[in-house]
Amino acid sequence: MSKYFKWLLLLLAIYLIWNRCAHLFIATNRVIASVGLVYDPGAADSSVRNAYESVLQEEGIPHRWISYHDFILQDGRDQLHRFQALIFPDALCRTIPIDVASRAKQFAQCGGKVLVVFDAGTRDRRGHYRKKGIFVNLLGVDYVQYDRLRNAAYLTSHLKFNSAADAAYWQIPPGKVSPSNELMSYIYGPMNFSVPATRLTSSSTRVYASSPFGPVLSRRPVGKGEAVWIGIPLGALKASGDDLELRAFLRTFVETIAELPHLVPSPRGLGGLVIDWHVDYNGEWIWLPSMLSHHLVRKGIHYEFDVTAGPDNNHPGDGEGFDAAGRGRPLVKEIMHYGWIGSHGGWLHNWFAHNLERHKLSRREILHLVQINDECLQNITGYPIISYAAPQGVHPQPEMTEILQQLGMCAYYYTGDAGSAPNRTFYNGRMVSKKVVAFPIMPNQNTASFYEMGEKHFSTQEIETWLDGTMKYVIKQRTVRLIYSHPHDLNTPQLRHAFSHFIDGVQVELRKGDLQVEPMYVYAHFLLRLVKTRTSFTRIKGEWIVHLSNPQGLNDVCIDMPAALLQKSFTLPATVSSRKTGDHWLFTILPDLQDLTLQLPAAKN
Ligand SMILES: [Zn+2]
């Protein structure tokens, strides 16, 4: 080895050490608003890490991953310059040492917010259960009782909130909880979760939700900060196709409890609805005109109509299809004025769903049937068909989404992740597609369409309450949800009245500028652009420097900045509009900029 090369190596080593130290210890005159996710590099569960990462990206939450080795090196007070909230995720922190909990406690005492999920700190380095979880004293919850209970230390249970208000605080939409405040699944009733047996060890722990085996969701003041306990495996749930809990609880922790600035996952930061009508068969030759004549389609409310276009329904040749190119054609032309046309499967509604479910169609046949459905509709609309709804919800993953991606589609109605926001869904531990966005249905407990609600004997008042609650939820949380039904579901005067009343309310909110109703592709295009945005919020001396950049443009991207972080008055560039709702400033970027830096006077603290 040449002498020159040795010197070069030495310099490189010095630079790397200096860089690492700078990263950890220097620059305490500035504060970076961010969430730190602590992990054990020895924990190999990449699916859980990817699950957290995907949701944090989609929610525009600035964050960084930090190994527990690096975490221990720094004093809790100094950590606050880099993170104001810390997460110890499920599966990624099982065997972290007890020193980590001391640091986390110090961090909370100095004002930081700490979230501990499920099995963090439950085992020793050999993988055996500890006598006590390392975060017990921080959380005020004893969450490792293996020594005492053995096989009864982990159980399967429903999750019950103390009240509807507590469920709403944690951003659970109204349709996802039963009248007794249990978290509900679409179709199957109360959801089952893996939970540890737990017990309270502190009178200052506030419990929000429990299983019959102890508290599952709690919060406790610690010094100037707080510690939050969530006893279900959020990341593992998301990775296996249940997005809502991770998303709703992370949002609540980061935005409400830690009050961190972030981006808003909907265009212009407005609550958004997709109102998706499935046009299945020739019965809709009657019910679509009925919707029109009862004034249930209105200008300005942009519905999505997903159409099965072929002339047949149950069997080839039965003549029971919607026949979009034939007798259905004038109706497609008519409803195009009230929204957007998407695909509802592969040419024959029931026949396609039936055969798909029984694995009787090859990939080539599926692709061909969806393609001819698309082409038929495109010939009528004059635009490409880029969104999809599975007939009877039959959407085998990941194959079906791969086919949609191949056909250039960007969004699909989805019965997985029920009740959650549009997202790049996971299946068997993997993100299904980076380009095609799933739009989960919003259920009303164990139903979703008006037809199903009728079958389960929901009163029209209950349906109205759910519709109104869903609208208010997306407005308040500035998020997006999809509701769906069929034109033929509105087959009674009572239901038509309930729906008409709902869209009266929608029109009021549209006029106020608090809501948007758009087809799936609008939100999908936005979300796929939003996740490419690089964002930083840094406080240097008396200013917050907000920097955003995105090669695909920043228009309609909205920043949510807690008002408590800023002084009362400030000026903004002409490229940014602002509005204040409650304790938050919302800054929306107007033209097609790729970079933006805001300098805002920071509140004195
Ligand atoms: Zn259908």
Description:
This protein has 605 residues and is of the alpha/beta class. It has three domains: 31-264, Rossmann fold; 271-442 and 480-486 and 516-526, Glycoside hydrolase/deacetylase (TIM Barrel, Alpha-Beta Barrel), CATH 3.20.20; 533-601, no CATH class. It contains 19 helices and 32 strands. The strands form nine sheets. An eight-stranded mixed beta sheet has the order 3-2-4-5-15-14-13-8, with helices on both faces. Strands 17, 18, 19, 25 and 26 form a five-stranded parallel beta sheet that branches. A four-stranded antiparallel beta sheet has the order 1-27-28-32, with no helix packed on it. The protein starts with a helix and ends with a strand. 49% of the residues are buried. The structure holds zinc ion. Zinc ion binds next to loops. Zinc ion binds at residues 278, 280, 344, 349, 391.
